[in-house]
Design brief:
The complex is a heterodimer of chains A (108) and B (122). Chain A is an all-beta fold and 108 residues long. Chain A is 0% helix and 55% strand. In chain A, strands 2, 4, 5, 6, 8, 9 and 10 form a seven-stranded mixed beta sheet that branches. In chain A, strands 1-3-7 form a three-stranded antiparallel beta sheet, with no helix packed on it. The termini of chain A are far apart. Chain B is globular and about 45 Å long. The chains are: A mainly beta (108), B mainly beta (122).
Amino acid sequence: EIVMTQSPATLSLSPGERATLSCRASQSVSSSYLSWYQQKPGQAPRLLIYGASTRATGIPARFSGSGSGTDFTLTISSLQPEDFAVYYCQQDYNFPGTFGQGTKLEIK
Amino acid sequence: EVQLVQSGAEVKKPGESLKISCKGSGYSFTSYWIGWVRQMPGKGLEWMGIIYPGDSDTRYSPSFQGQVTISADKSISTAYLQWSSLKASDTAMYYCARRPPLELERGGFDYWGQGTLVTVSS
């Protein structure tokens, strides 16, 4: 089973700042099978990025993904108030799929 | 419009059985995987297992193998998650979500159900 490790656990930033979230896999993952999700309190997760760098339908351009192999990054270029949430990376290159433990993005 | 609609919240006692459902609409139900994801109170997302309704190919996470059963009835576009004997530790929100078929060579859960809260308490 591939273990996904996200860092940091919590990120405290102000609106307008740039956020960089990291995700590391315990073994190489095909970029095609690396996804990022956003979850707000009381809501189901929402797909932001699939294929490591492709934005899902309706996702603003301030969200971008990059990386390959074992290291992946989610960047939010200029934080908006609605971006403060928990973010998860996930791989399903091999079943079982696995999620990272999440990064909580909070308002500073 | 793609939709996954899950069954309502459940309150059960330890040892009882339970089957929750996830009905897909707005797409070809047999052409996409349906996965189940657990979220315990205040915790992160856990990938439980996944089924391909077209041929009932089912895969489980080792953490959930033997603990739950995933099934699907393609005639009514519905996937299921069931327990034969619930424990208090099964208390969680359970989400179903759609994953593209393997031939599209990309992963991720692109549509999610609204979640089913399962509470197990004596």
